[in-house]
TrEMBL record:
Residues 164-200 form the PAS domain. It comes from the Bacteria. InterPro entries: Bact_Sigma-Reg (IPR052016), GAF (IPR003018), GAF-like_dom_sf (IPR029016), HATPase_C_sf (IPR036890), HATPase_dom (IPR003594), PAS (IPR000014), PAS-like_dom_sf (IPR035965), PAS_fold (IPR013767). The keyword Hydrolase applies. The keyword Hydrolase applies. This is PAS domain S-box protein. GO terms for molecular function: phosphatase activity. It comes from Streptomyces violaceoruber. Keywords: Hydrolase. SMART domains: GAF, PP2C_SIG.
Length: 877
């Protein structure tokens, strides 16, 4: 970072896998927020995302990310290990490429967003770095008024009482002077150590997020609020706050307070006429004369200060400021004072509202009595205001907004006041437009970062329910207070309420119940957000009905949980509700519904961001649907390849355990079957088709169904397998070789069982005797699906009471851990410990031993078939 002193650093390395991009973004975001660099977080995240993507995705190497902090800003370095890749120099004139390309956008973004950037090489890797400087944030600006004649000095009543209150870092009162005791009635002893907020009546002015606790943390603050006196009444005051620290470095806030009607004593700078000349013969800045110094550095603060000063300048009861949309057809309410503005913020009114010569916001307008022209100023409807003056804010002839002041009395304003207000509006129009453009740029960068992370999250899942949850969680509370997602199964189906989320979890159930009772929005494919009034109307009806019943029953509303829930739900949906279609592959697959609380409205920038998100979410939701449908079809087909169930074989215990390899597979290349052939005879088989997955499963189906059919036609074991071999070879290029153990079983009256077994290339069946010895129960013969002419033979085995026959596939015997393999000997050793166990216990012990043999999950299908001849139970005497 040049000669700047590095005050902190953080580094991390990310592997060359796709998820590393999101992890790197989170690392940079957390690091910069921890350093308090929120001003540059969004730009840093976007640039890091592009550069890490270039490293881990396009270059295919690990990415080293280093964050360095200094007093001037932050530098982020991203290094990959592929230095021979050509990188264009800043001054080479080489085209960075199109921003629409999938790769190569990192350097283009660096050039657009970073204060400085560059590329550095070392023998082993390449560094791309960028630096983001912090914006200037003045901690305090001194100002002085001009020398004035005595006649122009502020008028006060006798002695000026200036209350001096000092607040420590915890918000407690540490000093309270005599004037404070005189003005408010509390002595220093009564207030010492108590929280300052206990005495403050703070005006929660819509359009500003600064509370008393926030104001006490600022380096300087000036404005109006109230202090609760000893008699319980609130005393309006005008205050000037100054943040200081003592020799030990502990901060505190000194507050100077006067009665509100003496605000001129503290208010700075003095609002002198523009023509006044200061002592050094320099003309005062008209903007600072109107807005005050220091001017707010954020748009909302600037607009709020503007309406407050406009109200004071014309001694009005209310003031408001609206900003024009990009096409100048509508005005959006952005700041008010003296109005019920919580329900007006971000509301829109048409530019050409009203009638007559003052009907357009493009010209100054004076209304002496609004009752004579109802609706002339829609914002003031039902507010009690009678007279109003409005003036346009223009920059280079283009309408950028409208400023107005209003009074409760008729006839308060004339053209003279309109000219004064227009003069003030002309002074602030450029500053407001500059702040608005700055806000739009921050929103654009924040939106870009938001959409990058949203796309990454949505692409990371193919689960429908998880996709629905992600859609809702990304919109609440970032874009809306609550959200509901409707889905449409097909074109003939009605929309279904699939997911509901509110930023207050206690309201989710009530919101879901309300939405379930009203008809869903129409699935209109037209892009863009459209207003949906049904939730607000339904909530209002429910609230009125519930309140009426409660009052009729003479029951306090606060005592009824159901009533509180209904009223809270009505308030939650009482604001603006919009619906965005979820369109994927030219079909409406659902609707994304966003809502605000009582009488609140959406900003156009938020709606545009929500529309962009809805397009991404719709595609992700449709991909999840397609994946779920295909998985359901695949699993249904696979389940059809499994036996419907095991038959009850007299005097024989049978247990089967089956595990298919691969995610989502229920059937693979291994298969088993046990089925009745004729009276007293049963067939059993266990086999392994070459490979795994759907291709192997197709041969599995052929083999299992052919075995049953041929056996029940009366063919013996060798003939059954020879015909199956011919059927497999007839598949041609789709054929796969098959190892198969097939047997026929006849239970005997003496408690034993006769088996005739053919082992065609399959792991040999193992017989466990009662004495614990383990021996093969058959001889190996050629596998199926390789040669045409097979000559197979059956071998007879008699299982005595207590004997076990174990049949497995090679997924069991070939289980590996490094260079070790379980093998036939290892299997026989495990089986030898199963004497006296039931068939189910034998199969479970074999599987447990196989799973414990290696730490990694099995990569091959596994099947275990255990048959046991139970010992005869002693007869009861």
């Amino acid at each position: 970072m040049g000669s700047a002193v590095i005050t902190a650093r953080a580094a991390a390395t990310f592997e060359p896998v796709g998820r590393s991009v999101a992890t790197a973004r989170a690392f940079v975001r957390d690091t910069l927020q921890g350093w308090g660099y929120n001003d540059v977080v969004d730009d840093a995240v976007v640039l890091t995302s592009e550069l890490v993507t270039n490293a881990v995705i396009h270059a295919g190497t690990a990415a080293d990310v280093l964050c360095l902090r200094s007093a001037e800003g932050v530098r982020v370095e991203v290094a990959d290990h592929y230095p021979e890749r050509e990188v264009p120099l800043q001054s080479s004139g080489i085209d960075f490429g199109s921003p629409d390309r999938e790769n190569g956008r990192g350097l283009l973004l660096c050039a657009a967003l970073a204060s400085r950037w560059g590329v550095e090489y070392s023998p082993t890797r390449k560094h791309v770095w960028f630096q983001l400087d912090l914006p200037d944030r003045p901690v305090g600006i001194r100002s002085a008024g001009p020398v004035l004649p005595t006649s122009l000095l502020p008028v006060t009543d006798q002695r000026v009482r200036v209350a001096v209150v000092q607040i420590d870092s915890t918000g407690a009162i540490s000093a309270w002077n005599e004037d404070a005791a005189h003005v408010f009635g509390h002595t220093a002893e009564q207030v010492a150590g108590k929280q300052f907020t206990d005495f403050v009546a703070w005006p929660h002015t819509p359009g500003t997020s600064t509370g008393i606790a926030d104001a006490l943390q600022l380096s300087r603050w000036e404005g109006s609020y109230g202090i609760r006196g000893a008699d319980g009444r609130t005393i309006p005051v005008y205050a000037s706050h100054l943040r200081v620290r003592d020799n030990d470095g502990d901060p505190s806030t000194v507050c100077l307070l006067v009665r509100d009607d003496e605000r001129a004593v503290l208010q700075s700078p003095v609002r002198a006429p523009v023509s006044d000349v200061s002592s050094d013969n320099r003309t005062a800045d008209p903007f600072e004369v109107f807005i005050g110094s220091p001017a707010p550095d954020d748009l909302d603060g600037l607009l709020q200060r503007t309406v407050e000063r406009a109200r004071d300048m014309l001694d009005a009861d209310a003031a408001f400021l609206l900003l024009a949309t990009d096409d100048e057809t509508e005005l959006e309410v952005r700041a008010t004072t003296g109005l019920p503005s919580a329900r007006q913020r971000f509301a829109r009114v048409p530019v050409e509202a009203g009638t007559g010569r003052y009907g357009s916001a493009r010209m100054p307008a004076v209304h002496e009595d609004l009752t004579a022209v109802p609706g002339a100023v829609p914002l003031l409807t039902d507010t009690g205001m009678r007279s109003v003056v409005t003036v346009p804010l223009k920059v280079e002839g283009r309408l950028t907004g409208s400023l107005g002041v209003a009074a409760e009395n008729a006839g308060r304003y004339s053209n003279e006041e309109a000219l004064r207000l227009q003069f003030a509006a002309d002074r602030i129009a450029l500053a407001v437009e500059s702040a608005r453009l700055g806000e739009l740029e921050r929103l654009r960068r924040g939106s870009l970062s938001f959409l990058v992370e949203a796309s990454d999250l949505l692409a990371g899942t193919l689960d429908r329910d998880q996709t629905l949850a992600l859609m809702a969680q990304m919109t609440v509370p970032t874009l809306a207070t609550w959200c509901a997602v409707y889905t449409i199964a097909d074109q003939s189906s009605d929309p279904y309420l699939s997911y509901v989320l509110h930023e207050d979890e206690d309201l989710i159930d009530g919101l879901k119940a309300l939405l379930s009772k009203i008809s869903p929005p129409d699935p209109v494919p037209t892009p863009g957000a459209r207003v949906w009034s049904a939730p607000a109307e339904a909530g209002h009806r429910a609230a009125v009905s519930t309140s009426t019943r409660a009052l009729a029953a003479d029951a306090p509303l606060s005592m009824s949980t159901a009533t509180r829930t209904t009223l809270a739900t009505a308030q939650a949906v009482g604001g603006e509700t919009v619906v965005l279609p979820l369109v994927a592959r030219n079909r409406v697959i659902g609707m994304l519904t966003l809502g605000k609380p009582s009488d609140d409205h959406f900003r156009q920038e938020i709606l545009e961001l929500a529309e962009d998100l809805s397009r991404r979410a719709a595609l992700a939701l449709d991909n999840a649907r397609l994946y779920s449908e295909r998985m359901a079809i695949s699993q249904s087909l696979q389940r059809s390849l499994l036996p419907p169930g095991l038959p009850d074989v007299p005097n024989v215990e049978i247990e089967v355990i089956y595990r298919a390899a691969g995610e989502g597979n229920e059937v693979g290349g291994d298969f088993y079957d046990v089925f009745p052939i004729s009276d007293g005879a049963y067939g059993f088989a266990i086999g392994d088709v070459c490979g795994t997955g759907p291709e192997a499963a197709a041969v599995t189906g052929l083999a299992r169904h052919a075995l049953r059919l041929l056996a029940r036609e009366g063919f013996g074991g060798p003939a059954v397998l020879e015909r199956l071999n011919a059927a497999i070879l007839d598949e041609g290029a789709r054929s796969r070789f098959l190892t198969l153990l097939y047997g026929e079983l006849w239970p005997r009256e003496d408690g034993s069982a006769l088996l005739k077994v053919v082992c065609a290339g399959h792991p040999l069946p193992l017989r466990l005797r009662q004495d614990g010895s383990v021996v093969p129960a058959a001889e190996p013969q050629p596998l199926l699906g390789v040669i045409d002419d097979l000559e197979l033979y059956a071998e007879e085995v008699v299982l005595d009471p207590g004997d076990v026959l174990l049949c497995v596939t090679d997924g069991i015997t070939e289980r590996r851990e490094g260079s070790r393999m379980l093998g036939d000997d290892g299997l026989a050793e495990v089986l030898s410990t199963c004497t006296g166990l039931t068939a189910g216990a034998v199969a479970a012990r074999i599987l447990r031993a196989v799973e414990r043999f290696a730490a990694e999950p099995a990569s091959d299908d596994m099947a275990i078939l255990a048959m046991r001849i139970p010992e005869p139970q002693p007869q009861q005497s």
